[in-house]
Design brief:
Blueprint (H helix, E strand, L loop, with lengths): L2 E5 L2 H10 L4 H8 L3 H8 L7 H10 L4 H4 E5 L4 H10 L1
Antiparallel strand pairs: 1-2
């Protein structure tokens, strides 16, 4: 699958976590995402899988489409649209 998810604004996500009184480490543990990976996602060094992105969004009480950008290869555009509609 050639669907890439990245934060629309990682700084806002960091602020949202802090406003909730959590560190990145505590937030990661609560939602079941490895801390090292979470920091790499926030630094746009790696991109979460769709299930991981959903965990992050749910942990922030947000919709996945509100905090992530979806990037698809053109030849898989219809597949990506179908996936996005499912979430």
């Amino acid at each position: 699958m050639s669907l890439t998810l990245q934060f629309r604004d990682a700084t806002s996500v960091r602020k949202e976590i802090a406003i909730r009184g959590e560190s990145i480490a505590i937030f990661s543990k609560r939602i079941g995402v490895n801390y090292s990976l979470m920091t790499e996602y926030l630094n746009n060094k790696k991109h979460p899988s769709p299930p991981t992105a959903k965990k992050i969004a749910k942990g922030l009480d947000k919709e996945i489409k509100d905090i992530f950008l979806f990037k698809c290869l053109l030849k898989l555009y219809n597949y990506c649209l179908t996936f996005i509609k499912m979430i």
